[in-house]
Amino acid sequence: MTSSDSAAYVINLLTSGGKSDAPKIQRVYWSFVEGAVATVLLLAGSGGLLALQTAAVTTALPSSLVMLVMRYGLVRALYADDRQVPLGRITLAEPLRERVPAGESPSRSPFRDHVRGSP
């Protein structure tokens, strides 16, 4: 019962735009809607559970694609921050070997220079 009440409270917060002083009838409405959905799933048997699982996977696929794009942006931003250059100048399609600036020793790495205990 407590989990159901908490879920209704969170749904109420989301639908009221974050206002914690939303009308109590709205919270009661969401409690009944949540209970109705649970009842329908129980009455539908395994077919209802299968439909719920299918819906969860179907909605998770586009979200995972968005997260992959976000991961690419995060890697670019971290790389730009490490190199201290504007993000617009960063491309991640560089060769796999390190580029050593002219006049520097190849044993020095720009990735290890600021790490304590690095060789």
How would you characterize this protein structure?
With 119 residues, this protein is mostly helical. Helices cover 61% and strands 0% of the residues. The protein contains three helices and no strands. Helix 1 crosses helix 2. The mean pLDDT is 77.
Please give a handful of descriptors for the protein shown.
single chain, 3 helices, 61% helix
Write the layout of secondary structure elements.
Layout: H1 2-15, H2 24-44, H3 46-83
Helix pairs in contact: 1-2, 2-3
Gap from first CA to last CA: 58 Å
How much beta, percentage-wise? under 5%
Estimate percent helicity.
Answer: 55-70%
Most strands sheet: none
What ranges have pLDDT less than 50 throughout 5 or more consecutive residues?
Answer: none
**Radius of gyration using CA atoms only:** 26 Å
The ordered H/E elements are HHH
**Count the helices. How many?**
3
- Number of DSSP-assigned strands: 0
Mean pLDDT: 77
C-alpha geometry: elongated
Structural class call reads mainly alpha
